[in-house]
Automatic annotation (TrEMBL):
The chain crosses the membrane at residues 32-55, 67-93, 131-150, 156-176, 220-237, 273-291, 303-320, 341-361, 367-388. This is Lipopolysaccharide biosynthesis protein. The keyword Membrane applies. It comes from the Bacteria. The keyword Chaperone does not apply. It is a multi-pass membrane protein. Keywords: Cell membrane, Membrane, Transmembrane, Transmembrane helix.
Length: 417
């Protein structure tokens, strides 16, 4: 799972690095906003409703994979249409953001299928399927960027196509692994059967994604695209550590959901994530302060000058992430979606408010410091929620309650894949 998460991030990391070199800083800011829209829809909507729900209910990945994919296709299709409509409206007023948003909307269904396919493989205890999907996207991305460079088409439009188009192509392989959803699979029946969990997961994850998207949009309004470019470039430097920390967290959540350990077993799994998360954070902080300016310019091009004032706050954010590694995933593996939802909402409010206030005071650097303050407060709530849960009289729930059974009895021909 860690290998898969690393490969998954490499494609996006490589494209962001490439765009930082190939585009002017203001176009890099626009590309980052288009990327954030994808992340908000995929990470904040489809992944929360579908991917994390099936991770918490691995029995569905074993028996109803096509129904899971059918729900994902419908959700991503609607979200894609909304993007196309918004992008079209921007084109009418002459905005250069219009075309990238339209492209993201058109590619959204297959991009979402690629990501849901990864989580299905992990939930099925077959992470090799996820590794293959992300490796395929990485190989296609390298080929696309190479072709763009050879033809001298380093433009905002072509970079969006090079990143999103290859992800959509990789998404087609999910149908080879899991089967093509049939007509009756293209419904929200599966989502309805898990609605008690999935709607709370949606609120929780979309709140987290909102920090990235709406926070950046607010920074753009307060301080302009260059401040957005600085914040996004800073997040690029955080990506290696957050990739490993996030991958270990996904592993913890999946293991807890499938293995159903007692509290002692949960603590051991969470401790594993915590130790790895802190160790990776310390290594990254050392790299940040030892990295020479020449290497930084090679890595980020002209954008490096915007990032150097942020190295201290980036280091503190990475360390803070390490101290909460696996806490949220452990609660999700135990299906404790109610406290997760509440803390994600609280964290969203705190970090967006911090970013906006900080940006008004100190542009990109102020935005990062403001977000860090909100992050610290949120971490205390995460640990408090885990401690409260461990002291509770928790028992693992049945896989399906009577309401879910009634919904499923209305289906035919969908029991096996």
């Amino acid at each position: 799972m860690t290998l898969d998460q690393i490969i998954s991030s490499v494609s996006n990391f490589m494209v962001l690095i490439w765009s930082a070199h190939a585009l002017e800083p203001i176009d890099f800011g626009r590309f980052s906003l288009a990327f954030l829209i994808y992340m908000f829809i995929q990470g904040g909507i489809v992944r929360s409703l579908v991917s994390w729900t099936v991770m918490a209910h691995p029995e569905d990945a074993d028996s109803r994979a096509r129904g899971v994919l059918g729900s994902a296709v419908l959700l991503a299709f609607v979200a894609g249409l909304f993007c196309i409509a918004c992008g079209g409206a921007l084109l009418l007023v002459g905005s250069e953001m219009g075309t990238p948003i339209v492209l993201v909307g058109a590619l959204m269904p297959l991009l979402s299928i690629q990501d849901v396919g990864r989580y299905l493989g992990i939930a099925q205890a077959k992470p090799g399927r996820a590794v293959f999907l992300d490796t395929l996207w990485l190989v296609l991305t390298v080929a696309a960027l190479g072709a763009i460079a050879l033809t001298d088409n380093n433009s905002l439009l072509w970079l969006v196509l090079g990143w999103g188009g290859t992800g959509a192509l990789a998404g087609l392989w999910v149908f080879v692994q899991q089967g093509v959803p049939r007509a009756h699979d293209l419904s929200l029946r599966w989502l309805r059967s898990r609605w008690e969990f999935s709607w709370r997961s949606l609120v929780a994850a979309s709140s987290s994604a909102a920090v990235a998207m709406f926070g950046s949009l607010a920074v753009a309004v307060v301080s302009g695209p260059l401040a957005v470019a600085a914040v996004r470039a800073a997040l690029i430097l955080e990506r290696p550590s957050t990739t490993v920390q996030g991958s270990v967290a996904v592993s913890v959540g999946a293991d807890i959901a499938r293995q159903r350990p007692d509290n002692a077993g949960l603590i051991r799994m969470q401790r594993r994530a915590l130790v790895i998360g802190i160790a990776v954070a310390i290594v990254m902080v050392l790299i940040f302060f030892l990295i020479p300016d020449s290497f930084g310019r090679i890595l980020l091009g002209d954008v490096w000058a915007l990032v150097t004032p942020l190295l201290l706050v980036i280091s503190l954010r990475v360390l803070a992430n390490g101290t909460q590694s696996g806490v949220r995933a452990a609660l999700m593996g135990r299906r404790q979606i109610k406290p997760v939802m509440k803390i994600d909402i609280l964290g969203t409010v705190l970090m967006i408010a911090g970013m906006v206030i900080g940006a008004a005071i100190g542009d990109g650097e102020g935005a990062m410091w403001g977000a860090f303050v909100g992050q610290l407060i949120t971490i205390f709530f995460w640990w408090g929620a885990l401690i409260v849960h461990l002291r509770s009289d928790f028992t693992y729930p049945d896989d399906l309650d009577p309401a879910e059974v009634a919904i499923l009895e209305g289906r035919t021909g969908e029991a096996t894949v």
